[in-house]
Design goal:
The structure holds three protein chains of three kinds.
Chain A: H1 2-32, H2 54-61, H3 65-96, H4 102-112, H5 118-131, H6 137-141, H7 148-158, H8 163-171, H9 176-205, H10 208-213, H11 222-232, H12 237-271
Helix pairs in contact in A: 1-12, 2-12, 3-7, 3-9, 7-9, 7-12, 8-9, 9-12, 11-12
Chain B: H1 2-5, H2 19-36, E1 47-53, H3 54-70, E2 75-81, H4 83-95, E3 102-106, H5 110-116, H6 123-128, E4 146-147, E5 150-151, E6 154-159, E7 162-166, H7 167-172, H8 182-195, H9 210-218, E8 224-225, E9 230-231, H10 236-250, H11 265-271, E10 276-279, H12 282-290, E11 299-302, E12 315-316, E13 318-324, H13 331-342, H14 344-354, H15 361-364, H16 367-370, H17 373-382, E14 385-386, H18 394-409, H19 415-429, H20 431-443
Parallel strand pairs in B: 1-2, 1-3, 12-14
Antiparallel strand pairs in B: 3-13, 4-5, 6-13, 7-10, 7-11, 8-9
Helix pairs in contact in B: 3-14, 9-10, 12-14, 18-19
Chain C: H1 7-33, H2 40-44, H3 55-61, H4 64-96, H5 103-115, H6 118-128, H7 135-142, H8 157-182, H9 186-194, H10 199-227, H11 231-236, H12 248-258, H13 262-295
Classes of the chains: A mainly alpha, B alpha/beta, C mainly alpha.
Chain lengths: 273, 444, 296
């Protein structure tokens, strides 16, 4: 009997926590469907009196948010693809290739993880201006391509590839590139999926850097456009909620669909030490 | 193991990377990367880029279409920027070499962009333009666009601040006509507060420097001294102004809240949550659009109250001008567009869609403006404007005024502390200006 | 064999080149920038640039805005950090309990806020926190509690942001703790039960010690992340009211990109780096000390 009560209490606590977690998101969706002015009127409303898609239409027709949506998608995809290649190669090298100064170099990189990105931001902006990359997609992509955290994750995972497998291929005369491409990459696939999801999410949600680099509104990403919207249309709560839903929906869907891979890889990197 | 055997190659290739294949791959990647180096979609050489802010942005779009219709071959692309981000956007664009050809510039920013060397001097063009004869402009309005004797921008609209108020609530409190002096308004507001203690007679958002500065300018305070080298905030006139400002909150007449705390200004105004606010002409259009039809007869405008006989009503010469980027290859086309926007007909159309006020007297002759009772308050105010210091640092100093005024209102600092900090901050901000001025006079 | 290019070089080159050019170099440049008075005048006319040595740092120490930003950021780190970690740990313990069904479902739900875009969430919470018509205010009214102006009252603005940050982040650490919990061998618990340990003692003597490395990882990464507070105050309050939510990174942004005081802003950025470094080292030392004591 005690077990029953325990189980009930446990589940009640979990449900309460889950409700608290979901409530803001629920309200966001509900408010986006409310007729104008209803969200800011008196009374706690968790569901629109008359659901309407008018605000979503306004976002696309009047505010042309489709453009920013496409920009976010393009940038996130590009960064994911390129950084996957770059960081996987580096992580594999730190794990499985022997070269001088490997350990000190890796330790140096780890230490550098403590440095917050914002320290580099101002001179980086001036550097990009000298290179002519301000207000271009490349200006957002190129600085985001190498990530110490990603290299760390890949290295952790790659350490688990049996050396015997790689050595056998080397003995057979395969070059390092071949070994990497045909043996290591397939073995690394789980962490690659994780990294891809992780990078895509991070890039989609990135705010400060695109805010600084992209001034042209045709190039802006969705979070920046949403922040502009929030500054201008502070009066239109429902419109802003629609914008928020639009921004959040793609990544939530991506996460829910791929969560197993994402979480598995994340834990492989974080817990194994 | 099967897998590994299929990779057999000659022993000489061991541990060496096949350079040819790698280079091939690098070449492919480079091609892809260069695709991504694309920036804004390639624009026609002749497309003018025009940055407009806030509600002016939407109106500018319509005007740009008219311009294109009238001028064959001309193309104008309007980009709308929110005011909150406009200052940084312009600066970032300047540093990043991504400036528009023509842009709207707040009056208080002109000096700053002149210091940057971002603006094209316009005296020659103005003199050569029949459409922009300079005696048509309101006095004080052109002064805002002149720095050290050179004209750097063309006034687009004047934005001065006046009182918007709920006439029905005022009448209900026993005041049929709007008072003309501060004492009169204070009496009215106290009466309103007594009737409805949970509401606020006047809204003065804490993040805005305009009201304290208007009060100071009305009393004759100079804000800065010594050729704008040092802060002059401990001057008794500024002191009085700030004390008066804080007093409005102490008496419970204004809510100690920032602009961000007002969820919906228009809903709150309609509901009577506050009965008056100091704001600009863009709200003529916004109020007409957003207030419920039933309320359209119940709001009005009045000039800033006079202090007494020696200190008449005064407001700031705000507004925005049109500036041309010095480095733009399309300066001539940009000038023609500016001329177009400055025509009285366009200014009247602009007013119709935004409520913004034309800086030229000719435009005021149009019936829409001449006969509009609400615009009359602005017309009257335009006769008595004061300018804020025309220096690049003004925006920062204004932010400090906001900060210290807020600290004072919230009881985080005494009046003397706030003024001392304000002077300290202004002196620190102006240090480089002093150094530059000293250097320049040494060079002479 | 003389023309051998070490394979590793090819693998590392892109990443290291990118890091060197876009990270290491700018960080070094930032240090240099902080020793000058680069400002809006220098942008237009480089001849006005002056080398000022450590004057920016001195000005920083005398700037009340900096101390306010420091205080606010430390509050966020020292209150929000442990709170977030505690909620994560508590949630993980709940989800990990043997009697729980639908573990995967709960895990997904708790992780959901982590993947949402911060700007979107900030916009939503700004509406939630509205003192008169926000749902939270309505809830308070329903329970008869006095209305709190969360984002407009300097006393409550930072706690409001802490609340939002905890909501957004607790899922991340929860998942990590969960994995850590699930990797604790069952036999340790069995041994403890045989020795007569109750649930609470099992927690103290088996669970928490075994979680120590995970705990350290979670603490340090949360700390580093929280020191970089920016988007929440930027979107929700713009540093107000009365600079109550001004964070160090927001100060840096304001000075650097709003006023273009790049020299001063770079000094702020560097001080931030030193703070994070100090805090990380401190934590590592404390943990090592505790671990040594535990071992002895």
């Amino acid at each position: 009997m005690k077990r029953r009560v325990e189980a009930l209490a446990l589940h009640a606590a979990l449900v309460a926590l889950a409700a608290a977690t979901l409530l803001p998101l629920w309200w966001m969706v509900a408010a986006s469907l409310m007729p104008a002015g209803e969200a800011a009127s008196a009374g706690l409303r968790l569901w629109p009196s008359r659901p309407t898609f008018a605000h979503y239409r306004a976002l696309f027709d009047e505010l042309h948010l489709a453009r920013q949506l496409a920009n976010s998608a393009l940038l996130a995809t590009a960064i994911t693809a390129i950084s996957l290649a770059v960081n996987t190669a580096a992580g594999y090298a730190f794990a499985k290739l022997r070269f001088r100064a490997r350990e000190p170099l890796f330790r140096g990189l780890l230490a550098a993880m403590v440095i917050p990105g914002q320290v580099a931001m101002l001179p980086l902006f001036l550097l990009l201006q000298a290179l002519g990359l301000v207000n271009t997609f490349a200006g957002v992509i190129v600085p985001g391509v190498a990530s110490i955290f990603a290299i760390f994750l890949v290295r952790q995972y790659a350490l688990g590839i049996p050396d015997s497998l790689l050595d056998a291929a080397r003995v057979d005369g395969a070059g390092e590139a071949r070994v990497f491409w045909s043996i290591a990459l397939p073995a690394l696939r789980p962490i690659l999926v994780t990294l891809a999801v992780f990078t895509f999410l991070g890039s989609w949600n990135d705010f400060l850097w695109p805010l600084i680099v992209l001034s042209d509104d045709r190039l802006q990403t969705l979070p920046v456009a949403l922040a502009n919207l929030a500054g201008e249309h502070v009066q239109d709560t429902e419109l802003m909620m629609a914008g928020a839903v639009l921004t959040v929906l793609p990544v939530v869907v991506l996460f829910v669909v791929l969560q197993r891979h994402y979480l598995a890889g994340l834990l492989a990197g974080a817990v194994k030490e | 193991m099967e897998h590994a055997r299929r990779l057999t190659r000659g022993p000489a290739h061991r541990d060496r990377v096949d350079c040819a294949r790698v280079l091939h791959r690098l070449a492919c990647s480079a091609a892809v990367l260069s695709l991504l180096a694309c920036g804004p979609p390639a624009r026609d050489v002749d497309t003018l880029v025009f940055w407009a802010m806030g509600s002016e942005g939407a109106a500018a779009d319509a005007l740009a279409r008219d311009y294109e219709a009238r001028t064959p071959g001309a193309r104008v692309r309007v980009q709308q920027i929110p005011w909150s981000a406009a200052h940084e956007k312009l600066l970032t664009a300047y540093v990043g070499d991504a400036m528009p050809d023509v842009f709207q510039l707040g009056n208080t920013w002109v000096a700053e962009f002149v210091a940057l060397g971002a603006l094209e001097p316009l005296d020659a063009r103005l003199a050569a333009s029949p459409a922009l004869a300079s005696d048509d402009w309101f006095p004080g309005v052109q002064a805002a666009a002149r720095v050290e004797g050179v004209t750097w921008a063309v006034p687009w609209y004047v934005d001065t601040r006046v009182l918007f108020y709920r006439s029905d609530l005022l009448a209900a409190a026993g005041f049929a006509a709007p008072p003309a002096s501060w004492d009169g308004w204070l009496a009215a507001w106290r009466a309103m507060k007594a009737r409805a203690p949970e509401r606020w007679p006047v809204l003065l958002p804490l993040g805005e420097w305009e009201v304290p500065v208007i009060l100071a300018l009305q009393r004759g305070a100079g804000l800065l001294r010594d050729g704008e080298r040092y802060g002059d905030f401990r001057d008794p006139r500024f002191r009085e102004a700030l004390a008066f400002y804080a007093g409005l909150f102490e008496q419970g007449l204004a809510p100690p809240a920032g602009a961000g705390q007002v969820a919906n200004l228009y809903q709150d105004f309609a509901a009577g949550f506050f009965a008056a606010l100091v704001t600009g002409p863009w709200n003529l259009g916004e109020m007409a659009r957003r207030l419920p039809p039933a309320l359209q007869d119940d709001w009005a405008t009045a000039p800033i109250p006079a202090l007494d006989a020696q200190h008449p009503s005064v407001s700031i010469a705000g507004g925005a001008c049109l500036a041309i980027h010095r480095g733009s290859p399309r300066r001539d086309a940009a000038w023609r567009f500016v001329e177009f926007l400055s025509e009285p007909a366009q200014q009247v159309a602009f007013h119709a869609s935004t409520g913004d006020l034309p800086p030229r007297a000719a435009a005021w002759e149009a019936p829409a403006l001449r006969d509009d009772p609400r615009a009359a308050a602005f017309r009257a105010q335009l006769a008595s404007l004061r300018a804020t210091p025309a220096i690049p640092e003004w925006e920062r100093i204004a932010a400090e005024i906001t900060r210290q005024a807020e600290a004072l209102v919230r009881g985080e600092a005494t009046l003397d502390e706030a003024l001392a900090r304000l002077d300290g901050a202004a002196d620190a901000i102006l240090e480089k200006r002093r150094w530059l001025l000293a250097r320049r006079s040494e060079a002479r | 064999m003389s023309r051998r290019v070490p394979a590793a070089l090819w693998f590392l080159a892109p990443a290291l080149a990118a890091l060197a050019l876009f990270f290491v170099a700018p960080v070094a440049a930032s240090l240099l920038l902080s020793l000058t008075d680069f400002d809006v005048y220098a942008v237009g006319d480089p001849s006005t640039l002056r080398f000022t040595g450590l004057r920016n740092y001195g000005a920083l120490l005398g700037d009340p805005s900096f101390w306010t930003a420091l205080r606010n950021t430390l509050f966020f780190v020292l209150v929000g950090g442990p709170l977030s970690v505690a909620v994560s740990l508590g949630g993980a313990l709940l989800v990990n309990a043997r009697a729980v069904r639908l573990r995967g479902f709960f895990r997904t739900v708790f992780f959901l806020p982590v993947v949402t875009t911060l700007v979107a969430v900030a916009v939503v919470w700004r509406a939630l926190y509205h003192p008169r018509v926000g749902p939270l205010a309505e809830l308070f009214r329903a329970f008869g509690l006095p209305a709190i102006d969360w984002l407009g009252d300097p006393r409550f603005a930072m706690p409001a942001i802490v609340g939002m940050a905890v909501w957004k982040n607790f899922g991340f650490n929860l998942v990590i703790f969960l994995a850590g919990l699930q990797s604790i061998p069952e036999r340790l618990y069995e041994a403890a039960r045989i020795d007569g340990a109750g649930a609470w003692q099992q927690l103290r003597h088996v669970t928490l010690p075994m979680l120590a490395p995970t705990f350290l990882f979670v603490s340090i990464s949360t700390l580093i992340g929280y020191f970089q507070l920016f988007a929440e105050p930027y979107v929700m309050t713009n540093g107000g009211p009365s600079d109550a939510t001004l964070s160090i990174v927001l100060l840096m942004y304001r000075e650097g990109f709003r006023w273009w005081n790049l020299g001063y802003a770079a000094a702020v950025a560097f001080v931030l780096f030193l703070l994070i470094l100090a805090a990380s080292v401190l934590q590592l030392r404390l943990r090592r000390g505790a671990a040594l004591e535990g071992a002895a």
